[in-house]
Amino acid sequence: MSAFSALRVAALLSSLPAFALIFAPAHAQELRNGGKLLLTNGVSTIEGSGGGGLATWSTIAGNATQEGIGGSVHGTVIELPDYNWTSYGVALGFFDRVELSYARQNLDTIDIGTALGLGRGYTLNQDVFGAKLRLAGDVVYGDALMPQIAIGVQHKRSSDAAVVAAVGGGSPNGTDFYISATKLFLSQSVLANATVRFTKANQNGLLGFGSATADDHRPQFEGSLAYQFSRRFVVGGEYRTKPDNLAIAREDDWVDLFAAYALTRNVTVTAAYVDLGSIATADNQRGAFLSLQAAF
User: Fold this and answer.
1) Residue 28 gets which letter from DSSP?
2) Which tens digit of pLDDT belongs to each residue from 214-232?
């Protein structure tokens, strides 16, 4: 990952709407009311919700406990052989019970855009609006075998309806539903997560939702396993299955190997090796992932 990529992450964070920045770290103490254990709020997914990088967890965004309001902002860059991905977003957590999130996703097609007839550097865009509700359990406390369980919804709106129609997508807009279970086993320093997502998204929704022959929500799995070397440093891996709806291009499952480090209580950096398989006729899309999160 180049220094230029790190600058791009910083630039993404600076481009967030002003309302996302009104909760400055200086006010974190009264909102946090003691706060969660370091890193137990997870980081920000590419869809803006709290979790890992690729997989959604049941964690609620921000450092606040059940007595406070918290949140986070993030910027993410993924550099692949034939594409560049950027996303940024904001999430708010209310009393460690409810999470509301927003993310903007951008996929720069670089030279592939010319091959697809879109023009070099054509960028696919999508907005993701999310809500999550914690139903039971706690990531850290309570019964050692009882995970934190949450349900969630993510409504996605592509900005490229003409492209979606051209590749055979059924609709430029769609909604995912999921249920997640997450637990940190403190004595073993191991975090485990399992999520079942009901979706018909093509390439996360950037190529629309469903097709003429596959227009039903189908369950997909998102799993994460991480080991905490210290209070500040975590390594792990994730696996996310994907639907394969489009006849024009194969869609593969996603895998990553990541490391997350808490620079401070409020700032976490995550780096990963990602394998996103085939994207819109371009195979072997493996590369580097870098994300910066600021949480309060």
Assistant:
1) H
2) 889 999 999 999 999 998 9
**Structure letter (DSSP) for residue 29:** H
Q: What are phi and psi of 200, to 5 degrees?
A: -135, 25
Q: What is the length of the chain? A: 296
Whole-angstrom distance, CA of residue 89 vs CA of residue 25: 17
The H or E element that residue 164 is part of is helix 161-167
Interatomic CA distance for residues 251 and 203, integer angstroms: 7
Which candidate, 61, 60, 88, 69, places its Cα nearest to that of 22?
A: 69
* Residue 123 CB partners (closer than 8 Å, separation 6+): 106, 107, 108, 109
pLDDT digits (tens, 9 = 90+) for 246-261: 988 889 999 999 999 9
Contact 149, 116 (CB under 8 A): no
Nearest to 13 by CA among 53, 56, 72, 61: 72
pTM for the model: 0.85
| Nearest CA among 80, 89, 147 for reference residue 112 | 80
Which tokens go with 159?
């900005």
Decide: 207 and 200 in contact? Cβ < 8 Å.
Answer: no
- CA atoms of 103 and 221, how far apart (whole Å): 21
Q: How far apart are CA 120 and CA 221, in angstroms?
A: 34
Burial class for 41, CB neighbours closer than 10 Å (0-12, 13-18, 19+)? buried
SS3 of residue 286 by DSSP: strand
How many Å apart are CA 204 and CA 156, to the nearest integer?
Answer: 9
Whole-angstrom distance, CA of residue 131 vs CA of residue 102 = 9
Cα→Cα distances 126→13, 23, 56, 130, 230, Å: 17, 25, 18, 13, 36
User: Among positive and negative, which fits the CA dihedral 158, 161, 167, 169?
Assistant: positive
